[in-house]
Design a protein that fits this description.
The complex is a heterodimer.
Chain A (H helix, E strand, L loop, with lengths): L14 H9 L6 H20 L3 H17 L10 H20 L12 H10 L2 H8 L3 H10 L2 H12 L4 H8 L3 H22 L1
Chain B lengths: L3 H11 L7 H35 L5 H4 L3 H7 L2 H20 L9 H22 L2 H11 L5 H7 L8 E6 L9 E6 L4 E5 L5 H9 L3 E8 L2 E9 L6 H12 L3 H4 L7 H4 L5 H7 L10
Parallel strand pairs in B: 3-5
Antiparallel strand pairs in B: 1-2, 1-4, 2-3, 4-5
Helix pairs in contact in B: 2-5, 2-6, 2-7, 5-6, 9-10
Classes of the chains: A mainly alpha, B alpha+beta.
Amino acid sequence: MYSSQPQSSKSPLSDTDIVTSVLNGNLEDYGILINRYEPKLKRYIMRLSNISQEDADDILQDVFIKAYYNLADFDQKMSFSAWIYRIAHNTTISHYRKQKARPHGNYVYIDEKILQNLIHDDTDILSDLIKQEDAEKLVQLLEELEPKYKEVLWLRYFENKDYSEISDILQIPKGTVSTLLYRAKKKLKSKLKKYE
Amino acid sequence: MNNLDQKILQKIREEKITPKSKWLFQLKWWTIRLAILLSLLLASATFAVILKILFEGEFNFAKLLSGGYLIHFARLTGLTWLGFSVLALVLLKIEIRNSKYGYRVPDWLVLVGSIVVSLALGYVLYKSGYVNKIEKPIARVFPPANFEEFKVQIWHQPAKGLFVGTLLQDYYNDASQLSFTDINGNMYTLDLTHISPIDKLVLEHASLLVVLGELKDNTITVCAVKPIFQEYELESKHTFRQSIKNIPAEILGDRKGIFGSFLHADETSADILRKSKCKGNSLQN
């Protein structure tokens, strides 16, 4: 059973332990989860919807409030990360459906580590593009993909999620994740050929 | 520095937001599980009735009665029950998809699994006889689903020499004529001079009959008779089958099926008599 002492000075608690603590009434510990997931979720929301930082902050706030409200529904059959990413995903989709338009032109930085993930996992096409240090072009090509392909690619290579987590986030079978990834890479390849 | 955590915690305090009770989530997931179970039972029940139609629909007479197997199935309320089963399977799919982890299962597996489980349970319901407790109440409320009713009506085709009805008196002492009323209330006299020993057994045991014969001047020259045993006549059906076994083989002959005369029937009653060799004793040759 979790104690009521502040935990910030102790070794990091697992997400599950923090959830248990919050549900036992220790609201302050929810702040640890927020700090832990804020940068990742914000980056994900901006990639998914191509919105400004300010709008992303609003959505992020909604996400954490919803997560808090539904905290008792979280169980250990999935990772907390997948669970909160799912809330972020659904909230973001819902937000830009209400807006009925997807803005353009917000630059999203891609760091070297992410490029390395792409190279290791795939092939000549992406590594060629990356070798040309044309990360910006890569992002542009990714943006041109249909949402269902873009989502799985972002989650796999940019958020470093495995197939199980992607399945839980998008609420689709693992086999479908695999199929979508395969098709997404194929489409990226054909777009690259046109670009060349 | 971004103090998002403090902003959110403050908002939670100010608006007095509390986590939803876990019991509400439990209620939601258990309600969905119950819905899945009920839909599975519904699908099984509909498959049980479909199996009943397939096993008891007398498809060996499909060409005679309906012109083909598919039409025969449709006429016996098969399409109605197929519609119910499709509805149950669609409900199952939606419910499983909305269950807590149902999204992890591919759609095709949900469909195949649902069909397999429903068929298996349906077979158990059919074999155990519970199917009758399912079909009748639904048929009372929704007549197009009344298989037993349509099974009787489908045999009544006077243009083909097929009459469904009941005797107005008991058959005994090798009577050569009997009064008969069909399911529409029309009265006839049955001329029994050409019937076989099997036909006599049918007249002795069955209350609802199919008479195959030629109608002339309100008299039906009977070529063959077939019983339609109702669900409550299981004992009569059993006794009849036992009695058939007592008929010597040389009299039974090697006709395909006891009611082979009906299989030879054709478009007109005259053809019926000719092709089924009704004149004389239909059991000979």
